[in-house]
Amino acid sequence: MTATGTGHRTRHPFVWLAAGLGVVLVVITVIVALRRASSVAQSPAAADAPRPTPAPVAVAETTGEEGTLSIAVVSLGRVSSDIVELRLAVANTAASGSPPLDLSQRFSADVPDSGTIAEVYLADQAHQQKFFVLRDAANAPLGSRDVAPLRAGERRVLWARYPAPAGHDAEVVVHVPHAEPMPNVPVGR
Length: 189
Prior knowledge:
The protein is built from 2 helices and 8 strands. It is α+β, with helices and mostly antiparallel strands. It has 2 domains: 2-48; 60-186, Immunoglobulin-like, CATH 2.60.40. The strands form 2 sheets. Strands 1-2-3-6 form a 4-stranded antiparallel beta sheet, with no helix packed on it. The chain starts with a helix and ends with a strand. 22% of the residues are buried.
């Protein structure tokens, strides 16, 4: 009886020790998980952390004839009753390491208009009218001027102002040099 009882007694403490260690590990795991959850829930910085702003949704898109220039109408809206502002996003979709695209003469061949979108025009098909970029007293196009080359993977927004088409529900075709026209672009209010 002593041999059996002794053998039984020696195995018994190890079983209890193993079970106790298992319980301790489970309790520690639960405590750590609860602390992490409460610190995330209590941290206002995590909730208020800035999120990356996605690129605006394009109203219309086309690709330049070279195939690596993506052109998108970001917006076309009225800035007054008789003026609209066109915003174009241009992106170089070439592979990394490709040479940059020269934008200085891309949207305007005239040297004084370099870096502008002066040759981009709007066409109102319903009223058979074309609208060209507005110009200031010095005959400079009203809009952005960007002559820096566009690197592979880079995206920029260019803008210009035009006379507003008639009617509040107007749609126009946006004509960009060396690219397919972008039809049915609504004029926002």
